[in-house]
UniProtKB/TrEMBL annotation:
This is Molybdopterin molybdenumtransferase. It catalyses: adenylyl-molybdopterin + molybdate = Mo-molybdopterin + AMP + H(+). GO terms for molecular function: metal ion binding; molybdopterin molybdotransferase activity. Its cofactor is Mg(2+). Pathway: Cofactor biosynthesis; molybdopterin biosynthesis. It comes from the Bacteria. Pfam families: MoCF_biosynth, MoeA_C, MoeA_N. One of its GO terms (biological process) is Mo-molybdopterin cofactor biosynthetic process. Belongs to the MoeA family.
Length: 401
């Protein structure tokens, strides 16, 4: 049985970034990772730009308060000034407009008094360059503005637009197949007969995948009969970079997944992990290189294994430099006393208080309890053995999502 860190290392050893593709600068590009450096094709701003509505002046003319200047032109944004500002002169200027030759500062209109074709400057100390954004301050032609490996966030959309990039090379979102297993399962639209339950892992895994930077595709429920399970799993494998199979990985007579995967040529790298919930996790690689996860069927076990092992793999396939999961030390907002035979990942909620961040364990009844897990945005890591910690004590916390 592997420790969590060793199992994660095994997973990451087999995860490689996917072949790159080109995406248009449209909302679907959000969250992709750039596969090439992006350089500026222009200076930004492309001209010295006024940051205020007011007057473009020569600061030396305004050394004494109350200076009066002749207003010789008006420059709205988008207009190229045709006249320079001489001694004793000013131009009416608006935010975003190019500063005219000769001027070296802008006075806000609140600090000036319009007097027909003249203006009195009431700003007592006009400094050179005030309210002026110098040409090329944000970026110079040829400078790298976004590095390969940068996740595309909304601000990156703006930067890409500014350098004229309407399509960019990125790592694709991995295609993730989801298969549920078990004769007891019915889909959500059906009322379960006695002895049966609804399939919760299928919908949850598609949502975890979408949140984790993958493109989910649900293949349905594999029944506990080898032939049908085998054909559904094969179908899933053929269309996926990563296949997630929930349930059927433990030691029961109907837990067919390990045998079916072996028949399909999957090589196993992880067969059990010393953790709770999630001990029977399976991880392997298929002959064509797909990553295959057999996630323990209890819904919270499935969830925790996704966060600890699948999401990091999806991040690497999707071109992220950091796999995660992120673990930080945080004080607990409520004391804990538990005994566990394995390191335990306890659903918890982050709390943002005036003294900073803390984490509160949620009421939770174990591996089948999704209602207890649902509000969680963190997992408190309890070491194996007896854990007693008081409110305020620091614990390792895995951040979710
Ligand atoms: N003798 C042993 N029994 C079990 C062991 C063990 O080591 N020895 N491990 C236990 C642990 S830990 C877990 S976790 C489960 C995992 O078992 P499987 O992955 O084989 O999962 P199943 O048996 O198929 O299901 C377990 C549980 O979860 C329910 N389930 C399964 N799939 C879904 C789904 N898609 N939606 C909702 N609920 C689902 C299923 O009905 C079972 O109740 O094994 C322990 N047993
Ligand atoms: O380790 Mo299992 O995943 O607790 O139910």
């Amino acid at each position: 049985m592997l420790e969590v860190a060793d199992a994660l290392a095994e997973v990451l050893k087999h995860a490689r970034p996917l072949e790159t593709e080109t995406v248009a600068l449209a909302p679907a590009a959000l969250g992709h990772v750039l596969a090439a450096d992006i350089a500026a094709d222009i200076d930004s701003p492309p001209f010295p730009k006024s940051l205020r509505d007011g007057y473009a002046v020569r600061s030396a003319d305004c050394a004494a308060p109350g200076a009066e200047l002749k207003v010789v032109a008006e420059i709205p944004a988008g207009v190229v000034p045709t006249r320079s500002v001489g001694a004793g002169e000013a131009c009416r200027i608006f935010t975003g407009a190019p500063l005219p030759e000769g001027a070296d500062a802008v006075v806000m209109q609140e600090d000036a008094q319009a007097l027909g074709d003249r203006v009195r400057i009431t700003d007592a100390a006009v400094k050179p360059r005030q309210h002026v954004y110098a040409r090329g301050t944000e970026m110079r032609v040829g400078a790298v503005v976004l590095r390969a490996g940068t996740p595309i966030n909304p601000a990156a959309f703006g930067v890409l637009a500014n350098v004229g990039k309407t399509a960019v090379p990125v790592y694709p979102f991995p295609r993730v197949g989801v298969v549920a297993t078990g004769d007891e399962l019915v889909e959500a639209g059906t009322k379960p007969d006695p002895g049966r339950i609804r399939n919760t892992n299928g919908p949850m895994l598609t949502a975890l995948t979408a949140r984790g930077g993958g493109r989910p595709r649900y293949f349905g429920i594999a029944r506990d009969a080898r032939a049908s399970a085998r054909s559904l799993i094969q179908e899933g494998l053929d269309a996926s970079d990563v296949l997630l199979i929930a349930g059927g990985v433990s030691v029961g007579d109907f837990d067919l997944v390990p045998a079916v995967l072996a028949e399909l040529g999957v090589t196993f790298h992880v067969r059990q992990v010393r953790m709770k919930p999630g001990k029977p996790l399976l991880f392997g690689t298929a002959p064509a290189g797909q990553l295959v996860f057999g996630l323990p069927g209890n819904p919270v076990s499935t969830f925790v294994c996704f966060e600890l092992f699948v999401r990091p793999a999806l991040r690497i396939l999707g071109g992220h430099a950091e796999a995660g999961p992120r673990t930080i030390r945080l004080p607990v907002a409520q004391g804990l006393a538990e005994s566990n035979d394995r390191p335990t990942y306890r659903p918890a909620k982050l709390e943002y208080g005036p003294d900073g961040l803390s984490v509160r364990p949620l009421a939770w009844s174990g591996a089948p309890d999704l209602v207890g897990l649902q509000p969680a945005d963190a997992l408190i890591v309890l070491p194996a053995g007896d854990t007693r910690c008081d409110c305020g004590a620091n614990m390792d916390v895995v951040l979710l999502g």
